[in-house]
């Protein structure tokens, strides 16, 4: 595995995601007459993407077809949700979220290369524990929202939503550092070329996470206007 392998496969994976996101944005209208259908398609695509991501995560070997299929379905979801926020809540939100995601990626990359971020066992343990706690809280909030109605416990709306969104971005930045460490170690230890697909998969998951947190914060800020 080389850095060129990682760049090429990450570019391919993100390319598939971006193309399907653009197509779903263009082909699935979010006006009052069509938003329910488009949103349903987006959620369905997200659920399929989630299943595919779990399958790949538990596989011992990278499956390029599985990773690219995940990217395609995730792109459909991102296209729909981005279109809804951009067209109905905050004009330009999608581009702002993209810029924010790119800024976090560049910042973490510079900090990692400069040695300001040191990824060791303690760092890994802290990030995984924090991520587990974050996901559990969000899951509980979702359950309360589904069965109790409204915003659940309020973790994803209002001031608390903004705070948790920032925490989510920070966690995403930490996962980027873990991704960079994985790439660095893979190259150093001469990992097989197909391992570059796993690196691409991890980077894509993290970038999608960060993008969604930015989009959520932008949505909350504009909804409160």
Automatic annotation (TrEMBL):
Coiled coil: none annotated. Pfam families: BaxI_1. InterPro entries: BaxI_1-like. The chain crosses the membrane at residues 7-27, 39-58, 65-85, 97-116, 123-147, 159-178, 198-221. Keywords: Membrane, Transmembrane, Transmembrane helix. This is Bax inhibitor-1/YccA family protein.
